[in-house]
Amino acid sequence: MEPSLSPRVKELIVKARIVSFDGWQAQFGEDAIALLQSADDQRVYLDDAVLNGMPAGDISRHLRDHANAIVDAARAQVLARFPGITEPGGGLYPAVRAEACWRDFWHFLRCITYGIAAQRTDYTSTTGLSYMEQLYQELQVPLDAMVYGLQALKAASKEQLAQLGLTITDEQIEPYFEHLISALSRFQAVA
To answer: Is 1 a member of any domain?
Structure first.
């Protein structure tokens, strides 16, 4: 039986929307922003029609197409770095907590691909990140594992792109990962 979520947690989940397209209108126009917002509202990766009009759509397409493998690789790195984290007493126990973490990794990668596609590091919402911090505090999410997981997502993404034979410079993807890594690194755990 899954533990039920408190009303506070349910409220925070709705408000913890970390993507924002504020300030992008001049570059992309209202129609493109509407498509981007629709994808984020549906919590899906950008489709080919949207990616074709973006500065780095090809990179984001490859990351999208290999998202599950990238998340699996990051999960393996987290489990190796934090043995016992999914065992009784660990920060990602019971299994429903671990599954939520891996789902967050998938969504983090999704959000990062929006920034990469547009070549914009300003893809996050300060307000949404504040609600995410409150949510993580409420749920006592192990922040060190989440930050490490984002670093592992970056490494796995670079490895995946290299395996595809793509020549990608660090500047083409690292700033977008580092932006979110930096934001989560500033989250405060509940004392």
So the answer is: no
Residue for token pair 């899954």: 2
Which CATH number characterizes residue 35's domain?
1.10.490.20
- Is the C-alpha dihedral spanning 68, 187, 144, 172 positive or negative? positive
Number of domains in the chain: 1
Instruction: Tell me the backbone φ, ψ of residue 10, rounded to 5 degrees.
Output: -60, -40
CA-CA-CA-CA dihedral for 135, 138, 143, 146, to nearest 10: -50
Backbone dihedral angles phi then psi of residue 2, each to the nearest 5 degrees: -75, 140
Full residue range of the structural domain in which residue 24 is found = 7-185
Q: Read off the pLDDT of residues 97-144 as tens digits, 9 standing for 90 and up.
A: 999 999 999 999 999 999 999 999 999 999 999 999 999 999 999 999
pLDDT at 32: 94
Q: How far apart are CA 152 and CA 155, in angstroms?
A: 5
Report angle CA 11, 184, 168 to the nearest 5 degrees: 120
Instruction: Tell me the two tokens of residue 90.
Output: 């660990």
Q: Identify whether 2 is part of a domain.
A: no
DSSP state letter for 160 = H
